[in-house]
C-alpha cells in the first residue's frame, strides 16, 4: 500500500484513519510571538501544497486570538466551477471518531456505561466472539475487530475502484457492516495488538444509541455540535447520500488517463456512519477541538483518559478517538499535537492542535490522489502543517 508522510490511512473505503508522525527539520526563522501568524509563510506553503493536491484546498490556522483562513481552487473540476470558499462543507471522515469518543466519555462520566466493561454487557451478540473487547479497547483500536471496509472494497487500498463503483451507493444498517467484518477471524485477541478499525466505531455508534435511547445523530447534536457552537456541522440522516449546502466535490483518482477522476459525492452516508460520517467545515472542526480541550465537552479527568496514548507500532500514538503526533517544532521537538485525520471518500481532512488549544490547523482537500508522488506530497503537507503549528517556514 502506498503511504504518504502523514497519510489518511486507507482503511480501504478510507473512512480514515491512522495518523503518522513526521519529524520536520528545524528551520529559521524562529516561531513568532504567541498570537501572531506568519501569513506570508502560510501562503507560500499553502501554494506548494495546493499545486500538488489539485482541486480545492481549504485551511484555517489559529494561534490564540489570531486566525488565518484561505481557500485555493474551485469547488469542482467542471468548467466554470465556482471558486472554493474557506467555509465550504466537506465530509470530515474519521475526525468523526473524536466526536463519537467524546459522547462515549460523557456517558461514562454519567454512569451510563463503564469504559472497561465488555461490549456484550450492553450489546449481547453483536460481536460473535468468546473474548469480548471492552469499550476502551474499541475506542483505542486495540479490540481486534476486523475492518469491514477492507472486506467490502479489497481493491481500494491499491487504487482499484472496481468494487467502489459497484457498491458505493449501497445503504447498510450498522449491524450489517459489523456482520461483514466478523465474517473474518479477529486479527488478535482484545488488548493484544493495535489495528485501525472503522467497524469498532460502528459498534460504538450502536452502543450510544442503546445507552441513550436516541439516534446517534441526536446525541451528536445535543452533546457535541450545540455545546461547541458548530453551526455548519451535521450528521446525515440514514439512507441519504450527498452533502448539503455549499461544498467541494469529492473525487478519487482512477489511474485511467481517459477518465482520471471518479466523483463520489453520492456515496451512501450509511457507509461512513459513526466511523466517519460527519459533514463540517475547517472552522467548525477547529471549534470542536477547542471545545474538546477547554472543558466544554470533557472534564479534565476525561481529557486525561482520552490522551492516555498507547503506542501503535506504526509511528504514531492513539488514545480514545484521538491521535497524538510529534511535528518536530524547533522550539519543542517532543511536543505532541492532538487530533485526527479523515478520509470522507474523496474529501481528505487533517486536524492537529496543541494540548492547550492555542495553536490549531485544520485543512481539507477534495481529491484523494492514490497515484501521486508520495514523497513530494508528504513534504508539501508537512511544510504546511509546520507553518501552521510551529510558526516556522520549514
Describe this structure in words.
It is a single chain. The protein has helices spanning 39-53, 95-109, 135-140, 148-152, 162-167, 174-181, 198-212, 216-228, 273-276, 282-293, 300-306, 374-389, and strands at 57-63, 66-72, 90-91, 251-253, 261-263, 279-280, 310-311, 317-318, 323-326, 336-344, 347-353, 359-365, 367-368. The protein contains 12 helices and 13 strands. The two termini are 28 Å apart. The chain is 31% helix and 14% strand. The chain is globular and about 55 Å long. The protein is an alpha+beta fold and 394 residues long. The protein has an 8-stranded antiparallel sheet, sandwiched between helices. It has a domain at 39-112 and 231-389: DD-peptidase/beta-lactamase superfamily (Beta-lactamase, 3-Layer(aba) Sandwich).
| Named CATH topology of the domain at 39-112 and 231-389 | Beta-lactamase
Quick one: overall form?
globular
Alpha-beta classification: alpha+beta
Assigned CATH superfamily of the domain at 39-112 and 231-389: DD-peptidase/beta-lactamase superfamily
**Cα-atom Rg, whole angstroms?**
19 Å
Helix content: 25-40%
Instruction: Encode the helix/strand succession as letters.
Output: HEEEHHHHHHHEEHEHHEEEEEEEH
DSSP strand count: 13
Based on the coordinates given, report the CATH architecture of the domain at 39-112 and 231-389: 3-Layer(aba) Sandwich
What does the main sheet amount to? 8 strands, antiparallel
For the terminal residues, how far apart are their CA atoms?
A: 28 Å
Strand order of the largest sheet: 2-1-12-11-10-9-8-7
Q: Strand content of the residues, in percent?
A: 5-15%
**Runs with pLDDT <50, length 5+?**
1-31
- Quaternary state reads single chain
For the residues shown, what is the average pLDDT?
90
Individual helix count:
12
CATH C-level category of the domain at 39-112 and 231-389: Alpha Beta
Amino acid at each position: 500500500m502506498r503511504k504518504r508522510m502523514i497519510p489518511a490511512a486507507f482503511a480501504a473505503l478510507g473512512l480514515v484513519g491512522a495518523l503518522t508522525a513526521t519529524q520536520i527539520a528545524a528551520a529559521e526563522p524562529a516561531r513568532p510571538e504567541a498570537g501572531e501568524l506568519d501569513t506570508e509563510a502560510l501562503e507560500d506553503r499553502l501554494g506548494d501544497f495546493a499545486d500538488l493536491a489539485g482541486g480545492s484546498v481549504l485551511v484555517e490556522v489559529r494561534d490564540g486570538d489570531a486566525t488565518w483562513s484561505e481557500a485555493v481552487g474551485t469547488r469542482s473540476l467542471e468548467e466554470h466551477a465556482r471558486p472554493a470558499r474557506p467555509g465550504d462543507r466537506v465530509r470530515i471522515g474519521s475526525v468523526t471518531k473524536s466526536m463519537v469518543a467524546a459522547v462515549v466519555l460523557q456517558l461514562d462520566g454519567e454512569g451510563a456505561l463503564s469504559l472497561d466493561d465488555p461490549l456484550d454487557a450492553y450489546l449481547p451478540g453483536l460481536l460473535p466472539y468468546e473474548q469480548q473487547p471492552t469499550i476502551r479497547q474499541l475506542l483505542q483500536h486495540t479490540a481486534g475487530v476486523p475492518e469491514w471496509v477492507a472486506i467490502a472494497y479489497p481493491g481500494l487500498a491499491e487504487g482499484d475502484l472496481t468494487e467502489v463503483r459497484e457498491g458505493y451507493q449501497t445503504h447498510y444498517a450498522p449491524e450489517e457492516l459489523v456482520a461483514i467484518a466478523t465474517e473474518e477471524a479477529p486479527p488478535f485477541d482484545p488488548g493484544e495488538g493495535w489495528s485501525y478499525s472503522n467497524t469498532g466505531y460502528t459498534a460504538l455508534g450502536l452502543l450510544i444509541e442503546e445507552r441513550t435511547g436516541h439516534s446517534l445523530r441526536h446525541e451528536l447534536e445535543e452533546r457535541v455540535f450545540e455545546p461547541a457552537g458548530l453551526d455548519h456541522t451535521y450528521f446525515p440522516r440514514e439512507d441519504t447520500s450527498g452533502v448539503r449546502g455549499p461544498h467541494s466535490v469529492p473525487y478519487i483518482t482512477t489511474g485511467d488517463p481517459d477518465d482520471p477522476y471518479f466523483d463520489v459525492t453520492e456515496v451512501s452516508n450509511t457507509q461512513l456512519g459513526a466511523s466517519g460520517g460527519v459533514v463540517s467545515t475547517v472552522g467548525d472542526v477547529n471549534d470542536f477541538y477547542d471545545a474538546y480541550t477547554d472543558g466544554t465537552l470533557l472534564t479534565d479527568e476525561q481529557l486525561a483518559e482520552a490522551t492516555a496514548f498507547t503506542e501503535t507500532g506504526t509511528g504514531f500514538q492513539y488514545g480514545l478517538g484521538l491521535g497524538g503526533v510529534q511535528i518536530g517544532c524547533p522550539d519543542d521537538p517532543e511536543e505532541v499535537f492532538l487530533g485526527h485525520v479523515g478520509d470522507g471518500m474523496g474529501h481528505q481532512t487533517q486536524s492537529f492542535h496543541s494540548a492547550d488549544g492555542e495553536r490549531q490547523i485544520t485543512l481539507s482537500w477534495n481529491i484523494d490522489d492514490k497515484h501521486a508522488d508520495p514523497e513530494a506530497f508528504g513534504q508539501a503537507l508537512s511544510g504546511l502543517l509546520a507553518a501552521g503549528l510551529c510558526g516556522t517556514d520549514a
